[in-house]
Amino acid sequence: MALFTFPKDFLWGASTAAYQIEGAIHEDGRGPCVWDTFTEAGRIQDGSSAAVACDHYHRWAEDTALMKDAGFNAYRFSIAWPRILPSGTGAVNAAGLDFYDRLVDGLLADGIRPMACLYHWDLPQPLEDRGGWQGREVVGPFADYARIVAARLADRVKDWMMLNEPNVVATHGYGTGEHAPGHKLGETGILRALHHQNLAQGAALRALSAEHSGLTLGTVINLQPCRAESDRPQDVAAAARWDAVWNRVALDGVMRGKIPELMAERMKDFVLPGDEEAIRFPIDLLGINYYSRMTMKHETGHPFDVWWGDAHCDRWTAMAWPVQPDGLYDLLMEFRRDYGNPAVFVAENGAAYDDVVTPDGQVHDAERVAFLRDHVASVGRALADGCNVKGYLCWSLLDNFEWAFGLSKRFGIVRVDYDTLVRTPKDSYRFLSEVAKSGQFDLA
């Protein structure tokens, strides 16, 4: 036995995204976003949509009760930009702010710390029509949006994350086209989208810091240690390039105010004097989304001449992602070693599996339980070794609309029946509940 006791103030909970769970996309004045347009264009693999999703917009109280019953003390949710500003800027939709008022008050009443994320991929379509993340016109509107939401909620919401996974938005939304808005602009499209998200993030962080005191300001980045498939020099170089794109442009932007040296030449045409200082901000808390390492190899015909290599792994999720919990430990130790041990929390960690509902209506998701157990152990090991980790939030509370996969991939610790919208806690929910309530875990 190696029973580890987590700090008493350690955050346990779950994360969600507005577009994936709320539904009600045509209600109460909400405007269109890029994912609505992407869906209407027939780009969702199973033909589904987020029009209803989990109907969290109407059933939020049921969902906060699930978290309370689990013993969770934190919840990271995103605010739907088009629900607040239907055109992305200009007139404010009061009904949108009212919804998040109700949600925040409900969370606090249930003893759950609300952690708000301002942007989880639902860019208002009118802003995309003006260039979206390919240009600077979106920077000012994002900072204004941050001010508007904080003015309403910052008296109760103290934790503010600016972006979620800017690298995913840039790569799949503007580089390769599998995600909204669906552009295939290659290397330059990826790097431009990363840089302009960095600029918008910096502007919003400064706006909130100037106008509100006592807030915990941060952002959330999907970080994955990049490994070369082999020791061939071209594979080693490819992994280093991909690390620079996927991890360092966003991370070193906010943390160090630096464009990675490997990308500086490629970004020189749109990085202006003063930009590096504008994107750097001393954040209070960094959210880390971790799912697996990345094993990369040199292969021409892809952006940056990089493609997936063989991960040499014996466990895989239903997304065909390798299960590599030791990578989370390595990542957390890197922050301790190379970044001055800043305050971080695991903002997303979870897995999709092909859940089976038993005749009695239960979901015994042993693979997901094992996934979560192994990753919680990695967090405990990192804490024991001195890493400044403040919390662990799983992805996700609910089965939901999994972006381009639609409703076909289930990440939730609570099953959602998309016909009846009935919620059923899975074994993984009970596992995390036990850990959250006890605050102890066997690291052996």
Keywords:
hydrolase; cellulose degradation; Glyco_hydro_1; Beta-glucosidase; carbohydrate metabolism; eight-stranded parallel β-barrel; 444 residues; TIM Barrel; alpha/beta
Q: Please, could you describe this protein's structure?
A:
This protein has 444 residues and is of the alpha/beta class. 41% of the residues lie in helices and 16% in strands. The strands form 4 sheets. The protein has an 8-stranded parallel β-barrel with strand order 2-3-4-5-6-8-11-12, surrounded by 6 helices. β13 and β14 (423-425) form a beta hairpin. α9 runs parallel beside α10 (233-256) and α14 packs parallel to α15 (427-438). The chain is globular. The mean pLDDT is 98. One of its GO terms (molecular function) is beta-glucosidase activity. This is Beta-glucosidase.
Q: Please identify, by name, the CATH architecture.
A: Alpha-Beta Barrel
Assembly type of the chains comes to single chain
Which CATH first-tier class would you pick? Answer: Alpha Beta
Radius of gyration: 20 Å
Quote the beta fraction. 15-25%
Q: Roughly what is the average pLDDT, rounded to an integer?
A: 98
Structural class: alpha/beta
GO molecular function: beta-glucosidase activity
Catalytic activity: Hydrolysis of terminal, non-reducing beta-D-glucosyl residues with release of beta-D-glucose
Protein name: Beta-glucosidase
Keywords: Carbohydrate metabolism, Cellulose degradation, Glycosidase, Hydrolase, Plasmid, Polysaccharide degradation
